[in-house]
Amino acid sequence: MTAFDDLMAFERETQALASIAGRLGWDQETVMPRGATAQRGEEFAAIENVLHARRTNPQVGDWLAAISDADLDAVGQANLRHIRRSYARNTKVPAKLASALAKATSLSQGVWAEARANDDFARFAPTFEEVVALKREEAAALSQGAEQGDLYDALLQDYEPGGSAADLAQMFGALRPRLVELRDKILGADQPAGVTGTFDEAAQMALAHEVASAFGYDFELGRIDKAVHPFSSGSGQDVRITTRTSATDPFNCLYSTIHEVGHAAYEQRIDDAHLLTPLGAGVSMGVHESQSRIYENQLGRSRAFTGWLFGRMRDRFGDFGIANEDAFFAAVNRVTPGYIRTESDEVQYNLHVLLRFDLERQIIAGDLDVADLPEAWNARFEADFGVRVDKVSNGCLQDVHWPVGLFGYFPTYSLGNVYAGCLHQALREAVPDLDTGLAKGDTSAATTWLGDHLQTFGGLREPKDTIRHACGFEPSEAPLLDYLEAKFGAIYGF
Amino acid sequence: MTAFDDLMAFERETQALASIAGRLGWDQETVMPRGATAQRGEEFAAIENVLHARRTNPQVGDWLAAISDADLDAVGQANLRHIRRSYARNTKVPAKLASALAKATSLSQGVWAEARANDDFARFAPTFEEVVALKREEAAALSQGAEQGDLYDALLQDYEPGGSAADLAQMFGALRPRLVELRDKILGADQPAGVTGTFDEAAQMALAHEVASAFGYDFELGRIDKAVHPFSSGSGQDVRITTRTSATDPFNCLYSTIHEVGHAAYEQRIDDAHLLTPLGAGVSMGVHESQSRIYENQLGRSRAFTGWLFGRMRDRFGDFGIANEDAFFAAVNRVTPGYIRTESDEVQYNLHVLLRFDLERQIIAGDLDVADLPEAWNARFEADFGVRVDKVSNGCLQDVHWPVGLFGYFPTYSLGNVYAGCLHQALREAVPDLDTGLAKGDTSAATTWLGDHLQTFGGLREPKDTIRHACGFEPSEAPLLDYLEAKFGAIYGF
User: Which chain A residues are within 8 Å of B36, Cβ to Cβ?
Assistant: First the structure.
């Protein structure tokens, strides 16, 4: 056994334990008895302690010091890169700070939920100030020894390794004006009709299973359950998703399912050789989101696929107020004004994200005080969406991310959309008759292409390289913008 | 923090991790995707490694050496007793032997399953000889430093701490002749009719939920799912049970459920103060089985409760060939000849167990060679059951226990029945009008008494003391025998 073999054996066991911790989270959201909360809290803390001890174990540092990249093949080098990054990240943050952060964010989540329910930002502010102070302290610790000393970039690495705020700002800077213009045109045009009536929730779940299969979700390596929030959980051989139903909005269930199938398919299709290694999971949040979004939007909300879906929905639900496939395509893609990111459409979604990206950079840089956040939010919202936020629960208190300390996470949503735009362009070039299959509910040409050109590699390449390799060109925001303008121009008639 | 506080904090975290490992087992038997087997195997191995390292951590030995019983209250002393016993047990077995046993028993289970399917004992014998040799080696390691040097007693401690083969042999020696005589009388009498027809399996599950509630199962702290084998899993706030259905035998589902509710109720009702401590779980297999069996048999198969159940089954299933409550009581309690322990009735069940107890003591003592096991089994079976075993899958290959190295486990089944007999006698004395409630499907007088007199204490007292404390008299086999003779005499008319 070489040092590398020892390290990989240790890492494999750590990955297996992390997988168990992930399953515990799935269990809590789906099947756990209501009265088990306190005990489950201790169980989570116990396994997190085990994981933290392994991830900061000095033996890992010794192994890393003893291994030379030159002795390894590309897979070995990629594994080593992930382990080095993780070990450096985890050993840079003092245990005391990690513990203070865990406590503060746990407390903050409860205070935030109450403050949001009561539209009371003042109630949340002191707690949130504490979270921000600790996150800035963490960012300072993480940025030690980094090539760039930027606090925000240090946090961004947790979600998008190799990403930088400067690159994102440039990309998003090009995205924003064309999106604002597009939103403006759309909201000035005639609105297509939405669906009407109620939709049996068991039938929705049955259709969700059918649609998941249509998108290649492998039920031998996963399952679908209902939960309050849709999510995908796990890697490798056990990748479970959840969805939810609304009696009046069948698209909530269906498109949440397709979105999560995108995440899950990525995890299910990674090369078996990477199982329980650092390469055996999606490489970044941005790349992950590119899979969920291309499944959901460029494929799932396409004219071709919605044509098939219209028939399946008519079979299951009868008449729901939509006359034909074209009207259904428009109904699926309706753009309506609204304050809430998670209820947003393809066009406005990125405007929600860009707003958060700019504000959170200011917060972490120390240029925006917590007390000034609601007004900064509302001013920016009015500039981009043309309306004034009516209450703070529709403004800066709407998302759980900041209260639990997730700074640097938001931009990966839009980065994922940009990457989905690039992948979609490459896919259309590689499979010119894609729509023929989609119109019959057959996504296999698309999902096979994504599997072969991206998903199978897992964490082998860095995030941006993963997209570049799949597309064969340098990723940019242009394909997404071109796609959105063409699609919504067609629907809204401009 | 004293050494005791440190030890208890460490133990609490170990218990939380053990709880996670147990939940992983539940997941595998109920909801895990089929294709996840290999990954799950690595997950199990990883968490078992963590648990083994904690349970043999020399720091525990240091803490134990630094703590004086005299400084602790009764609860502290009981915790210490459990931790001392567990630490001594785990450190006595060399790691190499533990690993060899894990491998041998894992292999053996597969070989056994094939041998049983082909009625081929010769195929199983070499593998089984290896398991027996390793278990004798383990017993020798465990019996070092014990007051009694008996190999079998050393193994028995894993399931019934404080128990001894000599005590059990005396008890079972008194049990056996009266059971043989009772079986003989019953099988010589006229057989009551059984149920006929088929029973909707969804309706069976609905009734199982109703019956579980009737026995006080707390759905806030648990759930019921279907699985291949019925079991109860977990302690404290999250105690889940499984059951199964057979279209032609509704009693399989219903009485498996009641049995598992007995196990689960014990775990759910332990004093919250013991949560995630060594006292927070059932104290032994024998005491655990006393709960499952008194729920299932003395309560669930009583004339009073079956009277209520008959009405509920008629409501759900219509006519199933049983005319009235008395006939239903007889149908539920039918005694029929058979080779298989798990399909057995209250009367013959203990004869199955006593046979195994006697044979496994001889095996571990080195007095019975593996090659001679089938003949020894068949001879004893004929003596106790009056018929010759027709094939080895109906004989010594029927149970998984020995193939996976569970020697010392079987007697706890009969000990549980004996304890259930004692508890039932004490309960009837404490609650003279018990049948009034049972006849209305109300078990609360019984389950409250068991909760207050036994379940709440968890592992506070040693197993036999737990029963003695609840009953107020010295446990013996007499109450069980008196109960069985009276009940089956009434049903079979002698």
Answer: 221, 236-238
CB A390 within 8 Å of CB A445: no
What DSSP string describes A76-138?
HHHHHHHHHHHHHHHHHS-HHHHHHHHHHHHHHHHHHHHHHHTT-HHHHHHHHHHHHHHHHHH
Q: Is A460 exposed, middle or buried (0-12, 13-18, 19+ CB in 10 A)?
A: buried
- The residue extents of the domains of chain B are 3-150, 151-494
Map residue B242 onto helix, strand or coil: strand
Is A35–B237 a contact, with Cβ atoms under 8 angstroms apart?
yes
Instruction: Please name the residue ranges forming H helices in B318-409.
Output: 325-332, 346-365, 373-385
Comparing alpha-carbon positions, the chain A residue that sits nearest to B48 is: A17
DSSP lists the bridge partners of residue B233 as B240
Q: Which residues of A touch B220 (CB under 8 A)?
A: 33-35
Rounded Cα distance, B134 and B370, in Å: 13
> Are the beta carbons of B237 and A49 separated by less than 8 Å?
no
ipTM: 0.94
Bridge partners (DSSP) of residue A226 are: A243
Q: How far apart are CA B485 and CA B322, in angstroms?
A: 24
Task: Please write the tens of the pLDDT for every residue from B282-340.
Answer: 999 999 999 999 999 999 999 999 999 999 999 999 999 999 999 999 999 999 999 99
Helix (H) or strand (E) holding B233: strand B232-233
* DSSP-H helix ranges across A144-249: 151-156, 165-188, 201-214
pLDDT tens digits along B344-382: 999 999 999 999 999 999 999 999 999 999 999 999 999
Query: Strand, coil or helix: what is B266?
Result: helix
CA distance A121 to chain B (A): 34
| pLDDT in the model for residue A195 | 97
The one catalytic residue among B160, B260, B289, B477: B260
Q: What is the CATH number of domain A160-494?
A: 1.10.1370.30
Contact B39 A237 (CB under 8 A): yes
CATH of B151-494, one of 1.10.1370.30, 1.10.3210.10, 3.90.1580.10, 3.40.800.10: 1.10.1370.30
Query: CA nearest A225 in B: which residue?
Result: B31
Q: Which residues of B touch A50 (CB under 8 A)?
A: 17, 50
- Please state, in angstroms and rounded to a whole number, the distance separating the CA atoms of residues A32 and B23: 10
Angstrom distance (rounded) from CA A485 to CA A270: 33
